[in-house]
Each structure stands twice: as structure tokens, then as C-alpha cells.
Amino acid sequence: MEVDLVAEPILKVEGIHTFIGKHHILQGVSFDVHPGKVTVLLGRNGAGKTTTLRSIMGLLSPSQGTILFKNQAIHHMKSFDIARLGIGFVPEDRGLFNLLTVEENFRVAMFQEDKSTQQRVETILEIFPDLKRFWKAKAGILSGGQKQMLAISRPLVNKNELLLIDEPSKGLAPIVIDHLIEAVQKLQEQTMIILVEQNFYMASSLGNDFYIFDDGRTVLNGQMEELIRNEELKKKYLGISGTT
Amino acid sequence: MSPQWRQWFPKFIGFAIFLLPLLFINPKTYITLTISGLAMGMLLFLVSSGFSLIFGFLSVLNLAHGALFAWGAYIGFTAFSLINKWTGWGGSNSIFSNMLIFLLVLMVAGIGVAILGVVTERLVIRPVYGSHLFQIFITVGAMIVMEELIRIVWGPNDEVMPVPMNFMGSWDLFDVVISKYPLIAIVIGLIIYFGIYTILKKTKLGLIVRAGVENPEMVQVMGHNIYRYFTGVFAAGSALAAIGGGMWATFVKSINPAMGGEVIVFALIVAIIGGLGSMTGSVVGALMVGLSYNYVAYLIPKAALGITMLLLVVILLIRPTGLFKEGT
Amino acid sequence: MKKNGLNPVQIFHLKEKEERFRNPSFFLRILLLAFFMTTPFLFRSFEIADVVLKIIIFSALVASYDIILGYTGIVSLGHVMYFGIGSYFVGIFMGKLGLTSYGYLALAILIAVVISGILSVLIGFFSLRIRAIFFAMVTLAFMEFTFILASQLRPITGGEDGISFKLPGIFAIDYSLGRFLGVEFTGRMISYYLILLVSLILFLLMLRFVHSPLGRVLQSIRDNEQRSIALGYRTYLFQVMASSFASCVAAITGGCYAIWVCYVSPDSSLSVPIMLDVLLMVIVGGMGTLYGGIFGAAFLMITRAFLPKLQVLIASLLPGVPFAIRLSERWLFYFGLLFILIVYFFPKGVVGTAQEIISRRKAE
User: A-B interface: how many C-beta pairs under 8 angstroms?
Assistant: First the structure.
């Protein structure tokens, strides 16, 4: 996919406030996602990153602010309509249907069962040959890494323009994380990615732009290269010291 | 209790239910009882599967399910009288036209209650998604309203349920008495079970329902209007209850406005034993309850309900979530 | 921070006690009590006294159910089983066994209480560990089972027809103490006051229970079970305790009921419709507010006693068509609709919502 240098952001999140019950979780979140870049959302636990993804996906309704996808307002739309616009979601717990087979997991995700979808499935299976091997097996028996591959690739059976991924490296061994990074790098060619990650190694390997969350607000943003070198920032907002 | 025991103990119980009675009952009576047990099981399956499916997919406790069952019986009652008046199929001796009218009646009852179900889901259930407690409350209210509505429309008295001519009576095969209707009920029940099974396993619709039983939120995120599916499943579950109602009424040959209440307890027990949200569980649980009830009713009439309670307690002890998992 | 050597919790309690007497609703409660005490004199009609006493009895029953449902957060659908046990023991002792004496009356209730307590502990131990909704269904199944048991064991329970019996001594219907303030003080009246006294004591006991440290633990379990467990409380033990306390109270109210109607049968003491009534009452009145039970009981009893009369009136105005007659006849239908609306608009019940409004006003 060609990188558009005069890039109009594909996703514009502006001034989002979201409540869960009476808790004011997001108190002013703003960021842009530019085509061709992987945008990483960083921050400590509880800073509001997952809530942000869920707000974008329509699972939570922001009380204030706007979310524009390709200049269309989506912050009041229902999740299934948002999905049909070409936004995919990979939640923290992966959201797999463990009792269904790998094939069935893909089928649920498909909007249409036509040739182009079929082709996309084949492309995915080339990138992730394991999924081909376990095609008819129940998703529940896959290993952690394989489950993550399935979860990430599943939304891509459709013409997907934006993929929201929440902490994919959670619970995975370092070598599996390396595989995952490779896989996501290949996927990046197909779709835009917003990545929420605690694992700085993964975040820095994949991310181009970053936004730091603190206390339900976006407090800082910039290019990933700058952040990697800035020890002070890393310690302050991410609690990381030394090289990770 | 070790996990292995937990695995084969239920199967052991299953076999025990089937085979133990042979020690006490002579084979011919055994066959008759088995057939009526299976028939009762099939009917219980119809009612409890609807409840189980609704709970599994929508995570909703619908205590008005019994009222829907009664509505099915009553609509069937009226439908039968009307169709029979028009075509005379019910009174004829031809088993073919008997079947025709019977199936037609069940279809009408199913569709009618499905519509009722859609209305109920929209008005009564939607506001209380997420809170089991309030679901209990509001569905109790709905149950009262529905039952009273029956009394308003049809009157408060018991009515005799007409049965197609050729369904009554029995066949005599080698000295074994096989009642006709229970056999028919078993066959219809099996057909419906396989129908549901096929839809669930082979169609995309069924796939989405099965996925939704596991994770409704995720299904929504994948682009499916889950609310439409909720309504649809609720309607389907209600239709199942209605068909169960129509068939039950034909079985006991009478209907009364409070009939839902009697059956719902059994349906609940079956659903718990089988595992809420599992179709296979409903079948197995229903057959276990139906068979055990019939055998014991023959041997020690007063203990029949006791055996059902015993089964419930035993299953709760070794497998509190029921025999089968959600979504199977 | 200590004041007069008291710690903050004790200060809080002291303040609560002080405010209690200045609370307007306190006078409301005294008024209500006065009303209950003077009803037989205010209204010479037996029917009204009957309705009022039933309200009193059911208030206590509903309050005991509220302890489980509203304060501890357990959904039981078989609570009326204990009510039935209480009724039946009185009935069996007085009726079937003919042991009519004060001693045996007390003994009957005592045994019923013990059995109810034990039973609820057993059921609790088995079922409270599983998902809440299973517990609800299991309790329902158990109550149904007891119902059928009572219907079948004719020699002991009188089967479906039940047991009619006479009460001993001063409670007997034909006993008279003479006239007082122009009203004949019959055994009935004496029973009335006995039951009123017992119910009052039960109610006060329940209030004490709910405001005690134990009660507060239960509320914390209801609000956030995980947190309570994290704080070190064996939650299910507390739940079992609350459940057995409530069932013992229910058994006593059942005994009172049997004393009042001198009759016990599966339909009048053990049936699902009664459980539904209790459920309706606690919802209409409000969960987690013991007083809600009084309102709920009053609402249902009065509706049930007087709506049919209203109906006969309306029916006489609408001639002919059976459908129209039936439409007006089935008051329960309108009640059901009303009930759904109440659940929808007053999820906390009438008393509960009132309490909420009051506390919100206070906070402003």
C-alpha cells in the first residue's frame, strides 16, 4: 500500500469523554491515525486505552467528543454498523469462539462469502500456515500464539481498513512475540493498525506514531524513534527503566 | 470426586435409568413405559430447549416460557377446531389427513406464539437485558398477564383438547401394547431435534447463534446485528414451547389456563440437568427425566416426582453446570 | 480521632440513634402501629380485621424474604416453603394429632423453626456455591416438591384438602373474655393481638439483624461479593446464616397464619402462587427496605380484597358480551400490567424509590 505523504488522517478522535456507570474513565482523548502508519497507544494499566478502543468500536458510547472515520462520524453508530465500515477489533481476551472450529471462526467474521473473500482467506493462510493446519480443529485447542494469530487475522477476511488490536502480546513467550511482530508487519501492508501495547519491545518494533495515555487523557504524542531514545519519558509514563 | 468419575458417572446414570427398571418390570410393560417415557421426554425437550436456547444465547431467564407453552396449546386448540370444521381432516380415519391437520395446527401454533414472542421480547425483555433479577420479576409479570389473557379470550375453564381420530388407541404387536400417539410424538420430536441440530451446525445463521452463545459482544463487533438475532432466537424458542404445548395438550387431551405452571418446573429441571444453553443437554436431560418418571410412576406412583428431584440433586452435586456445556 | 473516648464508628452509631427520633418517618411508623392495634375497634367488620391481619402476617413474611433478596442478594424462589412448614406443623399438631394445648402450640412452632433452619442450611450448602440463577430454580423445585409431598401424604397432612383444626383455650373461636369498649373480646380478637405482637417482635428482630454488624457484612456481600471475599469473609457462610434466619422467621409467620385461619392446605400455605404474591409484594414495596414489605403486602391484599367488588360494579354496567365481561372480570390481568409498569418505572419499589428521593433531597 502506498504511503500518502500528504496524509489525511483516516481516523480522527477528538476530545472523547466516556463514562462507565458513574466512573469518568476517558477525560479528553484525542488522536489521529494516518494511513500507512502503525499508531501505538501507550500508558500504564487503567489509563484508558482499552476503553478508547471500545469507544471507537461502538461498545461504549462517548458522552462528549467526536470520532470520524474517513470523515464519517461514527461515535453514535452501533458496533455492527461500525464493523461493516471496515473496522476490525481484536480485544484483549482475543474474542475467539473456542467451541467453533478455526474455519467457523473465519466464517462468522465474513460479511460475504464470495471470491474476493476466499482470496483474502488464502492470503491469510499463507502468512499463517498453522491456521491452515488446524483449519477443522476447535479454536480452543490452539496454543496461545496461534490463538493470537487467529484473532488478529480473522477480521481481515473482509476488506478491512482499520484494525484495532488490544495487547496482543499478553501472556505470550518472547519468541512467540517475535513471530507475532513479523506477522503484524506483514499485515500492515493490508490495513491500518491501532495497537494498544504494554510490551514496549513490541510497541517500538511496530509503531510509527505513538500516543501516551495517562489518567484517561492523551498527554503526549510523537514519532516512535524519539520515544525510544527518551529514557525520562519512558520512565515517567510507562514505568520502564533501562532498555527493554 | 475425581474428574474421571465426573466424566462417566452421568453416563452411568443414563444407563441405569434405562436398564435398572428391567429388573422390576416385565419386558412388555417395559416397552410400553419406555415409549411413553420417551414421548414425555420429547415433549419436555421441546419446552426446555426453548428455555435453554434463550438463556444460552440471550442470557435471559424467561419465566413466562410456561405461559407461551399454554398459548401454544390454546392456539392449537382453536386452530384444530377451525381447520377441522373446514376440512374434516381431524375426524377422518385416514392417518394421512390426521397427520396433515396435526402438523398444520402445530405450525399455526408455532408461528402464532413466535409473533407473541417477538412482541414480548421487544416490550418486556429488552429493558431488562443484563439483570437476571429483574428478568425474573418482569417475566413473572408477563406470565401473569399472558395467563390472564388466555382466561379472557378463551374462558377460565378446562377445555377438552380434540385429538385426530386415528391418533387415539394403540397397536398390538406380539402382545406388546404400543400407544399410537406417543410414538408419533417421539417421531415428530426427533424430526424437530434434527432440524434444530442441522440449522445450528450447518447454516450460517446457526453458526452465528452458536458463536453468540459463547460471546454475543464479539458477534456484534464482527458486523452482525445481534439484536435481530436476539429477537429471532427468542421467537424460535417461544415457537418450540408452543409446539410442545400443542403436542402436550394432545397427549393429556385437555388444556387449562394454568397448564404452563405445571410444566415449567419440569422444563427448568430438565434445562438445569442438561446444562443451560445446550441443545444436546436438553434432549438427554429430557429423556432421562421422562423415562425415569414413567418407570417410577409405574412402580411406586407417589415417588415419581421424587425421582426427578433426586436426579436434579445428584447432577447438581457432581456437575453443577449441567451435563453439557453451553453451545453444544 | 476520638471524642469522649469513642472511635469514629461508635460516633456514627450514636448520631444515627439520635436522628432516629427526629426522623418524620418514625412517627409514621408509630402511627401505623397504633392503627394496627386499634383496628378491631375502629372497624367492627370482621372482614377488615381479617385483611389487616393478613397484611401484618405477610409483611413479616415479605420482610424475611427481603432479608434474603434485598439485603443479602440471594434469589430464592422457594421461600414460602418455610412458611408452609410453619403452617403445617401447627396444623398437624392441632388437627391431626389433636394435641390442643398452649404447650403443644408453642412446640409445633418451635419444631417448625428448627426444621426450617436446618433445611435452609442444607439447601444453602449445596446450592449457594453454584450460580445464582441455579439456586433460584433449585429452591423453586424444592418448594414444588414439598407441595406435592403435602398433597400426597394424606394420613399425615390431610392431602389436598388439608387440615381444619381448633385452637386451644383462649384462642378458640368460641371463647369470650367479655365486652370491652363495646366490642366482644373473642378468641379471635385474642389471636389477633397475639399475632400482632409476634409479628411486631419478628419485625423488630429483623430490623436489629439488618442493622447489626452481621447485617452490614451481608449488605457488603450483596454489593460486591468479590471485595468481601478479598476482605476475608467466607461469604457463603454469611449467606447461609442469613438464609436460615430468614427461613426461621418465615416458619413462625406460617404458624401465625395457621393460627388465624385455623386451616392449612397445600394451596393455602405452600403453593407457587403464594410465592409469586410474596415476590410481587417485595418488588412493589422495594427490596432492601424492610418496610417495603408492609406497603407491598397492603397493596396486594387490599387490591385482592376490593378490586373484585369494583369489578362486579363495572360488570353490572356493561351488558351482554362474554368477552367484555371477562375483560372486566380478570382484574389480575390489569394487576399484571400494572406490575410490569411498576417494575419498569420503580425498579426499587415504591418504598425504595421514596427512600431514594428522600436521601437525595437530604444530600442537596
Answer: 59
CB interface of C with B, residues 248-277, below 8 Å: 272, 276
Partnered with residue A18 across adjacent β-strands are: A26
List chain C residues with CB under 8 Å of B151: 326, 330, 333
Residue B118 lies in a domain: yes
Amino acid symbol at C110:
L
Contact call for residues C217 and C233 (beta carbons, < 8 A): yes
Least confident window among A36-40, A216-220, C49-53, C186-190: C186-190
Q: In this structure, what CATH number is given to the domain that contains residue B137?
A: 1.10.3470
Determine which of A157-171, B45-59, B81-95, C63-77 has the lowest per-residue pLDDT on average: B81-95
Contacts of residue C47, Cβ cutoff 8 Å, sequence gap at least 6 = C305
B23-39 pLDDT tens trace: 777 777 788 888 888 88
Q: Kindly state which CATH superfamily the domain A11-238 is placed in.
A: P-loop containing nucleotide triphosphate hydrolases (3.40.50.300)
CA distance C131 to C127: 8
- Decide if A57 and B221 are in contact by the 8 Å CB cutoff: yes
Q: How many CB atoms lie within 10 A of CB B241?
A: 38
Q: Looking at the domain assignment, is residue B242 inside a domain?
A: yes
CA C128 to chain centre: 22
Residue B136, in any domain of the structure = yes
- When CB atoms are compared, the residue of C138, C327, C337 closest to B316 is C138
The residues spanned by each domain of chain A are 11-238
From A83-92, B289-298, B313-322, the region with the lowest mean pLDDT: B313-322
3-state DSSP assignment of residue A36: coil
- For B:200-259, CB contacts with A below 8 A are 204, 207-208, 210-211, 214-215, 217-226
pLDDT at A244: 45
Q: What pTM does this model have?
A: 0.80
Q: For residue B228, give the chain A residue with the closest CA.
A: A80
- Section C298-308 average pLDDT: 81
- Which SS3 state, helix, strand or coil, does residue C158 take? coil
What distances in angstroms separate CA A186 from CA A147, A180, A191, A223, B97, one per listed residue?
A: 17, 10, 10, 21, 65
Return the SS3 of A7: coil
Its sign, for the CA torsion B81, B84, B85, B86, is positive
- Give residue limits of the domains in chain C: 46-271
Please tell me the distance from the alpha carbon of residue A10 to that of residue A205, in angstroms, as a whole number. Answer: 22
Supply B49's cell numbers.
Answer: 430447549
Burial grade of A5 (CB within 10 A; 0-12, 13-18, 19 or more): exposed
Question: Which ranges of C43-131 would DSSP assign to H, the alpha helix?
Answer: 46-66, 80-91, 102-127
Flag if A83 and B226 touch (Cβ within 8 Å): no
Q: Which three cell numbers stand for residue A201?
A: 519491545
pLDDT at residue A12 tops 50: yes
Q: Rounded mean pLDDT of A9-38?
A: 85
| Separation between Cα atoms, residue B284 and residue B275, nearest integer Å | 10
Q: How many Å apart are CA B312 and CA C75, to the nearest integer?
A: 19
Report strand pairing: B159-160 vs A162-166: unpaired
Residue B4 lies in a domain: no
Answer for the pair A238, A221: CB distance below 8 angstroms, yes or no.
no
Q: B129: pLDDT confidence band, cut at 50, 70 and 90? A: confident
Does B151 sit within 8 Å of C336, measured CB to CB?
no
Query: Pairing state of beta strands A162-166 and A87-90?
Result: parallel
Please say whether the beta carbons of B282 and B238 come within 8 A.
no
> At A181, is the secondary structure helix, strand, or coil?
helix
Domain containing residue B141: 28-318
Would an 8 Å CB–CB cutoff place A106 in contact with chain B?
A: no
In this complex, do C343 and B138 lie within 8 Å of one another by their Cβ atoms? yes
B106-136 as b/e: b if 16+ CB within 10 A: bbbbbebbbebbeebbeebbebbeeebbbbb
Gap between the terminal Cα atoms of chain A: 31
**A114 is written with which cell numbers?**
464470495
